[in-house]
Design goal:
The structure is a single chain. By secondary structure, the protein is an alpha+beta fold.
Length: about 60
């Protein structure tokens, strides 16, 4: 079957933090996640997905 691959913009650092090293930086990540219905908030110098615990997926173990 087909292998499911998670798009890079949906992967977060610990605590729901966006990774500024991804292509396009924070601006691109915020745009993509906002378009998918997520709320991105600034915490100090970091950007995080609000309530990420409620939308986080658990990895499948084979």
């Amino acid at each position: 079957g087909r292998q499911r691959i998670t798009p890079y913009w949906r992967t977060l650092k610990a605590g729901g933090e966006l990774n500024p090293k991804y292509p396009g930086g924070i601006k691109n990540l915020r745009a993509r996640l906002t378009a998918e219905g997520h709320r991105v908030v600034k915490k100090g110098k970091r950007y995080v997905v609000a309530d990420y615990e409620h939308v986080a997926m658990k990895p499948r173990v084979k």
